TrEMBL record:
<protein>
    <submittedName>
        <fullName>Membrane protein</fullName>
    </submittedName>
</protein>
<dbReference type="GO" id="GO:0005886">
    <property type="term" value="C:plasma membrane"/>
</dbReference>
<feature type="transmembrane region" description="Helical">
    <location>
        <begin position="45"/>
        <end position="63"/>
    </location>
</feature>
<dbReference type="InterPro" id="IPR003841">
    <property type="entry name" value="Na/Pi_transpt"/>
</dbReference>
<dbReference type="InterPro" id="IPR038078">
    <property type="entry name" value="PhoU-like_sf"/>
</dbReference>
<keyword id="KW-1133">Transmembrane helix</keyword>
<dbReference type="GO" id="GO:0005436">
    <property type="term" value="F:sodium:phosphate symporter activity"/>
</dbReference>
<dbReference type="InterPro" id="IPR026022">
    <property type="entry name" value="PhoU_dom"/>
</dbReference>
<feature type="transmembrane region" description="Helical">
    <location>
        <begin position="159"/>
        <end position="177"/>
    </location>
</feature>
<feature type="domain" description="PhoU">
    <location>
        <begin position="257"/>
        <end position="333"/>
    </location>
</feature>
<keyword id="KW-0812">Transmembrane</keyword>
<feature type="transmembrane region" description="Helical">
    <location>
        <begin position="103"/>
        <end position="119"/>
    </location>
</feature>
<feature type="transmembrane region" description="Helical">
    <location>
        <begin position="12"/>
        <end position="33"/>
    </location>
</feature>
<feature type="transmembrane region" description="Helical">
    <location>
        <begin position="197"/>
        <end position="217"/>
    </location>
</feature>
<dbReference type="Pfam" id="PF02690">
    <property type="entry name" value="Na_Pi_cotrans"/>
</dbReference>
<feature type="transmembrane region" description="Helical">
    <location>
        <begin position="75"/>
        <end position="96"/>
    </location>
</feature>
<dbReference type="GO" id="GO:0044341">
    <property type="term" value="P:sodium-dependent phosphate transport"/>
</dbReference>
Length: 463
């Protein structure tokens, strides 16, 4: 925020010159670029130029409007009354900036008033200090989404640095005013320079102590402990949808949370099978509700992003996040509807699996968890070699199912009912795990292999 504050003052410096004459040119060029290509950086740059041109025209019109009132006796009387009390100037400008949601507009207005002698230099500097406070209030009150207090650390830190800087400047306003007038005799330019100098000094002072300052903010606003509602999204910030790359990053982080919940379900199924604890299996099934709610939240968030704001890369990433989320949600459904019920049914009926088969199932469940972790890593790194290795994991599950099918039919021929029932349970669990693994592979490996040309549209051989 310190750097952003300094950057904002450079806009004021630029607008302090009469550049409104180029606003129509910006708009015209922007419209031509915007209409030329709807899926490129040229399209986005055109949007920027249109917005910049409209902003310049609006600020110029605001200043023209205020010039009609600068000589009004009532305004001069009001400003003259408060000009002798710097604190009132600060409060007035802070309120005006908060209402206008723009420190640039207020500082430009103060520059116009100072240039026409409506307010003396020291009062103008105090008004600029107030504008710096007002612009820091808006993010704290309106720009933070969610219930996590930690999200307010940055806007609160920004406001505190401004308040400290304003407090120091108010105490030394007279010598600062004399210095600025000596440095820049033109009142309007002195106001712009003071605005920039104030933010630069605040940045220089606080940069060396950002570490301790950040720890203080962390103590003041600790993170809300997770666990009250694990299905509540943490990274789907509605305000971020205006910036697609940020929105997609948040959705990807939320999708990784979904993968963590699925891993918890797989670990619960493994531990339930190993220990024979049916209560653990029942508790694990409840995790599917968390996956379902996260899946709905992610899909709703992604579909609410304006497609016109997305470039080709953003479109592809959005589809990848959707595919990853939906495949993992389907894997969770298989765990909830088939794997866990089959495990619970076997325990309820007292079907004892031979040690070697139980060991095989537990080993394959561990392999599923490893594959899920690989898929989560692939989702972020997009490594083709790792994608091929993950896709090859389907062979192991396919072979295990084929072996179990042959063994099951052999036991059916032996006509040993308990053995055949245990064999059927073993086969059902293997098929469930094979299907879960297929969804895991499809979630992360297939998009990468398809993009690299290594995934054929069909596995059927063509003559």
């Amino acid at each position: 925020m310190l750097g952003a504050n300094v950057g904002t003052t450079l806009i004021v410096q630029l607008l302090s010159f009469d550049i409104a004459v180029v606003a129509p040119a910006f708009i015209l060029i922007g419209v031509l670029m915007f209409r030329r290509d709807t899926a490129s950086q040229t399209h986005d740059l055109g949007r920027v130029l249109i917005g910049l041109g409209l902003m310049l025209m609006a600020l110029d019109n605001l200043l023209d409007l205020m010039r009609d009132y600068e000589d009004a006796p009532s305004l001069r009387l009001l400003l003259g009354a408060i000009s002798t009390v710097p604190l009132l100037d600060v409060l007035l400008a802070a309120g005006l900036t908060w209402a206008a949601h723009s420190s640039v507009a207020v500082v430009l207005l103060v520059m116009s008033l100072a240039a026409n002698g409506v307010v003396p230099p020291n009062a103008a500097f105090a008004l600029v200090l107030g504008a710096n406070i007002g612009t820091a209030i808006n993010p704290l009150l309106e720009g933070v989404a969610g219930n996590d207090p930690a999200a307010k650390r940055v806007p609160l830190g920004n406001l505190l640095t401004r308040l400290i800087g304003v407090g120091v400047c108010l105490l030394a306003l007279q010598p600062i005013g004399r210095f600025m007038v000596t440095l820049q005799p033109v009142d309007a330019r002195a106001v712009a320079d003071f605005h920039t100098l104030f933010n630069v000094v605040v940045a220089v002072v606080f940069l060396p102590i950002l570490g301790p300052f950040g720890r203080l903010l962390t103590r003041m606003l600790p993170s809300r402990t997770a666990g009250a509602d694990p299905s509540h999204p943490l990274y789907l910030d509605p305000a971020a949808k205006e910036t697609p790359i940020v929105a997609l990053g948040g959705a990807a982080r939320e999708a990784l949370r979904l993968a963590d919940v699925l891993e918890t379900m797989l670990a619960g199924a493994r531990d339930g099978l190993k220990s024979g604890d049916r209560r653990l299996i029942a508790e694990t099934r409840r995790q599917d509700d968390v996956i379902d709610r996260l899946n709905i939240a992610i899909k709703s968030y992604l579909t609410s992003i304006d497609p016109d704001e997305l470039g080709p890369h953003d479109h592809r990433r959005l589809q990848e996040v959707l595919g990853f989320t939906m495949n993992l949600e389907q894997a969770g459904d298989v765990v909830d509807r088939y794997l866990l019920p089959h495990t619970s049914k076997g325990l309820k009926r007292g079907l004892a699996l031979p040690k070697e088969r139980q060991a095989e199932l537990i080993s394959l469940m561990d392999r599923l968890i490893t594959n899920l972790r690989t898929a989560a890593s692939l989702f972020m790194t997009e490594d083709p070699r790792a994608a091929r290795l993950l896709a090859d994991e389907k062979i192991a599950f396919r072979d295990a199912e084929a072996r179990a099918t042959l063994q099951h039919f052999e036991r059916l021929r032996d006509s040993e009912l308990p053995t055949a029932q245990a064999s059927a349970l073993h086969l059902d669990l293997l098929r469930d795990m094979k299907l879960i693994n297929s969804h895991i592979v499809a979630a992360a490996a297939y998009p990468i292999l398809e993009r690299s040309g290594e995934l054929l549209p069909s596995r059927i051989a063509r003559s």
